[in-house]
Amino acid sequence: MIIYVESKAFPYKSFVTVVQPGDRVARVRAQMLHILYEIGREQYQFRLRYNGQYLRDAFRLEEYNIEANAVIKMVPLSDQKDDASDLRSMTSALTMNFDPETEKIPSVKSALYYEVKHLDRREKIVRDLHTLMYMHSLYLFLYVLSSYWYSVFWLLGYLLPMWYLIPGYTRIGGYIGNTFHRRLWFCVIVGVLGLTVMAIAIFLSVSAWQDIVADGCPSWTFENGCSRQNIYTGVIFSVHALLLLVTSVVMAMLLFNLRIEIGDVIEKYLVQERDIEEVMKLARSSKLKDRRTAAYELATMAASGDDNKFRIVAEAGLDVLIAMSLCNDEATQEYAVEALSELITIQSIQDNYVEVGGVRNLTALLHSPSARVMQEATRALYTICQSDENRHAMVEDHGLSDLAHAARNGSMETQRLVASIFLELVFNPEIRVQLTTRNIPAQALVHLCKSNDPETLRFALLTLELLAIESSDVVCAQEELLEILLDIPVRMMDKKLNLLAGKILLYFAENNQSREAMLDLVDLKDYLMTFAQTQDPILQKVVVKVIFCMMDSQQLKEQARVRRLDQVLTYCLDNNADRDVWDMADQGLQVIHSTEDTFPTLPSLSTMEKLSMGGKEGLFGSRTSLRSSLSNASSQRA
Hints:
Blueprint lengths: L1 E5 L7 E5 L6 H14 L7 E5 L2 E2 L16 E6 L6 H4 L20 H38 L6 H15 L2 E3 L3 E3 L6 H33 L12 H30 L6 H7 L5 H8 L4 H17 L1 H9 L2 H9 L4 H14 L3 H9 L2 H8 L5 H15 L13 H11 L2 H15 L2 H8 L3 H9 L5 H17 L1 H5 L2 H13 L3 H16 L1 H8 L4 H9 L4 H13 L4 H9 L2 H10 L4 H15 L8 H10 L11 H6 L1 H4 L5
């Protein structure tokens, strides 16, 4: 399959790589190293990212759900200006053997040069084979003049497969022709036929020379066994046998050369196991370059398998990585946090990490000026939040404030992760109580609701819903949230998001203060009309229920008339696909046009009853109906 690689460093180029779904990420990186070598940018340091996630060399493309025609981003190693002088190799080339003092070529760069030399040799071998093929073709005419002119037939049987199957190849252009995929068959078939024809040529040449020697060529007269044709035959078949031997040797060289394709050697070095003791020595070094190299190595090793994770921990790797994650070098921080994020996927390692105060370390990194460091720290915190035993550590000290900071200042991917963390936290009853006693989490969630990412918005709305179940006051106190909820149908054409927004709007409609704030909105009718125009019966019931909540007194009813909410009810009456919606809208119109000062409770109760009949998607309405859906809300998590 074809994978496209793009980079801001090369704005006018889209690089093309050809891989298989089961190939490792290292295979894509290896092909990119070759491409960069061709354009003279082999010193360019990069990483690969797909859907906001950095790709690990040891992982396979199918594990990241990378399919044909996917576009992968090539991201520079670091934005710091001194990176080029600090590192002389590619990002993926950083190994424990890198010695900047002696300028020793790292293993992966050595592998790149080896592959380039190997492929250059293949190009030369294929070119030589073409030359030999033309020389063999000449012997078709030379054989006709020999004593064994019928040898033309088996020579032709040798040349026909050679003409048809011989590949064209250049290191830059790759294989050429419609039979290049049969190159191994070419080597085997033509090689066997070549040895057969060579054996025949040797036999015929020996026969010709035997006749010449038997005759003795007395007085150098060219007749009988010493005829010119016999001498010609002996020379031609002898030379051709030697040429066939050379061809067989070249064919064997090509067959040996074909064992290695582009990226094989580089991939081996990218995913090889490093000596953990040597890496830890580099990690404890006083040199910044050594620590950065070690941090990358540890991140690569941790991503390679669980055995490596335990090996790192056994060498006191947790303490070392915590220390490196707090250093002043951005690249070292990023790699160290990546390594920690991989390590804590093992529950026993995670428990140990939390016990030594690792959560405080990660939450502190949420204030990093580097977006990548912040994102990796958030990813690690999300892993911890998935553990019932360790998620409590998130709300200790200033954890919630740090998460709120990341929600406001992080990238889109970071915000999505923060929203996921809040959702994981709110499902714990004890933590949910703590979240409702503070205003910071609710404010952070309101900010996340401004995101244009549907997943971030969905996680944030689900969390706000569960907070409202625990204490609707903390949600209704967020004045900015009201307009955000009302505007969601305009921003997002997503039925589930609209339902979540309507679900939370009911809490605002049931709260006295927030209800008045809703009626103060000049565009309230337009907002509610947008919900009703979705033609979804559940949302239309929500709209009618919201309007019912705004008619609890004569004063509120007057404001509802001023806001022309009766037009919304009329629309629901005339444009509905559900009998209950029609019935509810009809009752709402009767109430809003009534001049009586008494307000019967029947319409409101009837509305609630009918709203509760909305099915699984209609778990909206009063706090009672919402509390009953708490157990179902967990099924909506990502």
